[in-house]
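Researcher: Good morning. I'm working through a list of sequences from a screen, and I'd like to move beyond sequence-only analysis. For each chain I'm collecting a predicted structure so we can compare shapes side by side. This is the next one on the list. No need for commentary yet; just the structure.
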Amino acid sequence: MFRPSFEMTATRLLALSCAVWLGACDSDSNGSGTDGETDSGTDSADTGDAATADPPASTSGPGSNTDSDPSNGSTSEDPTDPTDDASGEPTDDTADPTDDPTDVDPGGPQIPEVQGECPEFPLAPLGSPAQVTFPVGSGTRQALVWHDPSKGGGGPLVFYFHGGGGDPAGAEATVTSDAIEDILARGGVVIAPISDPAAEIDWFLTTGSAQNDVVMQDSMVACAFEVANIDPYHIHAVGFSAGGIHVGISSLLRASYMASTITYSGGVYGGVTPDTDDAAPSTLAFHGGPSDEVGGVPFNQASALYASQVRDRGGYALECDHGTGHGYPDNVDGVFRRADTYNFLMDHPWGVTPLPYPGDGIPEWVPPYCSEQ
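Model: Good morning. Structure tokens for this chain:
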């Protein structure tokens, strides 16, 4: 299982919260600019290093959560929360649902068992996501969902995990509106979970090993497969900062179904033992170089460690040092457009053989600062 090695304390990792330490997280939704923790409507090159500044004296204490609507998530006192107390440790009700997985295809991705009654996936186009409640253990968790049931299913499932204090609606900027439109046109689904306020930096894996959000993710995968008929070979995740840490760790913990990921200033803290030796996710791992450090977490090292573990397990990893600190890579006309990163996910379904990029196969949209080693 996950074994953290970087020094992780709630005090240091509170710096991952953009709304507390770095201001607003609003951003454009067309993929032409930047978004997330370091963006206040300006280019990431101007704000990327701001995350390393000392926090203001008025910051909140440990356990604060600054989502735009934290009431939408469960709390540890709420009977719908899959934790037994404020420690965030799973109860028996959150036992790993992949212990008895549904075998979609012998030797193929393993879809978890449904944990309760799945919700409907309503019409929820770009700009109008639906808030959907999913069964998780003996309780529930919520997420923003984009979906077009008229397409009949058969498309990819893409998760978005925001940075500390972020907003799940930021999926439209980070996954990008172009990508979401294509996902829906293919009959797919985008799910942006709403964080549990009991998690100190939005996602439990960000500050420890509790797998509450992994169990939540399992339920959402199971329901998307059962109700929305998503393609089990195309289950992916995109995450930034705290969300990028969750994506990195959880993609290895769920290598049995996670096809590929995009992380922005994410990664892993230490060794992660996947739930299968038969598959590994692939990843496009962006970071901002040596200045990409927040709360004592060197995200360049976390990203490199994640890429290394993916490669060691037989997956494919491109590590991309954009060099602008804790934030997103700049869009450069004629060179790189962040919306194009979605192509990486579509090019790397679960178990793809042979891997399409090694050698001369790297597409032109991949920025020149990305490396296979």
